[in-house]
Structures are given as structure tokens and as C-alpha cells.
Amino acid sequence: MACDVSLLAGIQFFDLLNEENRKALANVIDSTTLKDGETLFHAGEPGDALYIVRSGEIELYIKDTAGQRIVLNTARPGDFFGELALLDEGPRTATAAALADSELLVLGRDDLILLFQKNPDAALHMLASLGRMTRKADELLRTRVSRNLNVEEEETSTFGQRIADRVARFGGSWTFIILFGVFMLFWISTNAFRGAGAFDPFPYILLNLALSMVAAMQAPVIMMSQNRQSSKDRLKADLDYEVNLKAELEIAHLHEKTDRLYEALGDRLARLEKALKAPNR
User: How many C-beta atoms lie closer than 10 Å to residue 24's C-beta?
Assistant: First the structure.
């Protein structure tokens, strides 16, 4: 229903309008009320109206892949929301719920065009609000967006950790086994055929010392690499959990949307049935 012209007073959107224009807008703008905790609309629903908070508070939020609520904005008296779906005729990008008993003004597309014709500064005010929301969305993307696990691990690893990975990777390869086997064979054969002139005669004490030193240094390096692999495995397990949780949440969300569509369809059928029975009375 049309709102009272007094409801437009004190709202920045309508500050520059004269009394005549305010009365004209009041005749076409609707008003609605929400109780504390009541949801105005859900993300993904079609949107055909912009809302201006007259009193109370409205929280706009989305849910991430783990089901946690991310608050995008809290609209207070004088603030507006729901403009994106109104402008591009797309679905709602967030869910709006009342944090307290609230009174809202409802502007449709035609109402908004009429407002811009009478007060062009209102369009600039809306653009500024869209810019603030875009900046906040960019910040959320920078802090919460999913990244490739291997890339993230590579970026955060230190120089020593990267060296440990390379040493462990080379030490566990056939290249290392073949090269080390050739080296030992050369060492043993050289000392075996030189007789009294051998620099490391049997039982090859110098070779045993070298092998012991290599093993003593290689063991902690390999353990460092194994610890990093264990850390990667834990991160991979967490990522798998988030993926599974996201799938469950998406299924639950589809169930919710189906239930809402079923309720809406039931209401429409009930109204249609009443309309068909009315002429028979």
C-alpha cells in the first residue's frame, strides 16, 4: 500500500525533493514491516524492488562453503539495499533478515525511475553505495577465496624447506641409486687392484666414514621433507572436508529452495481455487 508522506522525511534519498514531489512519490511507494528475526528475502530469489530502511536494522549476509555466515552489510535507518537485483533483473545476491522490528519503504523499478527524474543526485548516491559494496566484496575475495593447495604451500615454504624437498626427492630417485652405486663400485675396485698403494684398503674404513656422514646428514633432511608432506596431507584432508561439506550444504540449500517453491505454489493454487469458486457463490 502507499506510504504516508511523513515517512519520506529525514531520508537522504528524498532530502532534495520538494513537498509536491514527495507527495507524488508517497502515492506510489509502498511500505512494509518486519519483525525481529524475520527474513525479507533469500539469496537466489528473484528481486524486483529496492528497500529503504525507515527504522530498525536489516542484516545482509551470505554463507561460505563451510556454511559460515558472512555479513556483507547492516542496513540502518536511511540506508537502502536490494538495488542490484532491481537494476539487472537478476536474482538476489544475499539474504536479508531483520535484526530488530523494522519498517521499510519499497521502491519498484518505475518508482526508482520517477525518483531519479525528480532527484538525479539520488542516482549518484546509489552508485556510491554500489562502489562501497564492490570494495567490500573485493576484500572478502582476497581473504576467503579458495586457492590451489600446492601453490599455497610453495609460496609459504622457506628456502631451507625447498632445499630439503629437492634433496629428499633426489635421494629417493633411481638416478641417485645408480650414481651412488657407480661411485662405490669405482671406489672399491680402485682400492682392490692397487694393493699396497691403495688409499683406502679393505675393509674400506674411509668409505664407511663417508657413507656414515652422508647418512647422518641425509636422515634429518628426509625427516624435514616428510614433516612437510604430513602438513600437506593434513591440508588436503581439510580441503576434502570443505568440499564434502559444501556439497552437503548445496543439497540442503536446494531442499530449502524446493520447499519454498512448494509453499509458494501451494499458496498460488489456493488463491486460484478461491478465485474459481467465487463466481459460483
Answer: 16
Predicted TM-score (pTM) of the model is 0.45
Three-state DSSP at 148 gives coil
| Spatial separation of the C-alpha atoms in residues 178 and 42, rounded to whole Å | 64
Phi-psi group of 193: left, alpha or beta (phi > 0 → left; psi -120 to 50 → alpha; rest → beta): alpha
DSSP 8-state secondary structure symbol assigned to residue 196:
G
Dihedral of alpha carbons 181, 187, 188, 189, sign: positive
- Cα distance between residue 252 and residue 258, in whole Å: 10
The C-alpha angle 24, 79, 107, rounded to 5 degrees, equals 35
Average pLDDT over residues 15-40: 77
Q: Give me the residues paired with residue 91 across strands.
A: 46
Q: Is 135 helix (H, G, I), strand (E, B) or coil?
A: helix
* Cell 474459481, residue located: 276
